[in-house]
Amino acid sequence: MDATTGTKAVTETVSEDRRPSMVVIERCARLEGVDPLDLDPLYDTIDPDVLDSACAAPGFTSLEFTYCGRVVTLRSVGDELAVTIDDAATPATGPNTTTGGEPSL
User: Fold this and answer.
1) CA distances for 34 relative to 29, 37, 83, 90, angstroms
2) Which regions of the chain does DSSP assign to beta strands (E)?
3) Dihedral pair phi/psi, residue 77, rounded to 5°
4) What is the pLDDT of residues 12-61, one digit of tens each?
5) Which long-range contacts (CB under 8 A, 24 or more apart) does 76-80 make?
């Protein structure tokens, strides 16, 4: 539980052999208790290829968006990528924004 927002959050570190988009889909499905194929397509929220490319780009810091009613945050932590998913309905910095406030694709 996040003491400042009152939401439950789950964070997972993404290994280099996994696509961030698949981690988001699989984790949301687990949290919802459904098969990943039963979720709304991630593409309706963000292009999975763009998500994966952005996370792998040099200088990537973070990306936040809402998927399946949950705030999804991907952030660079040293040489690793961390995916955090919580129960809040909307992201704190607005939909589809990066840490620097630049709109994402």
Assistant:
1) 5, 8, 19, 22
2) 9-14, 62-67, 70-77, 80-86, 97-98
3) -125, 95
4) 888 888 999 999 999 999 888 999 999 999 999 999 999 999 999 999 99
5) 77/13, 80/13, 80/14
Task: Name 95's Cβ contacts closer than 8 Å, sequence gap at least 6.
Answer: 65, 66
End-to-end CA distance of the chain: 30
Residue-wise pLDDT for 59-87, tens only, equals 999 999 999 999 999 999 988 999 999 86
Q: How far is CA 81 from the centre of its chain?
A: 10
The DSSP symbol for 61 reads -
Maximal C-alpha separation, the chain: 35
Amino acid at residue number 22: M
> In sequence order, which ranges of 2-98 are alpha helices (DSSP H)?
20-32, 48-56
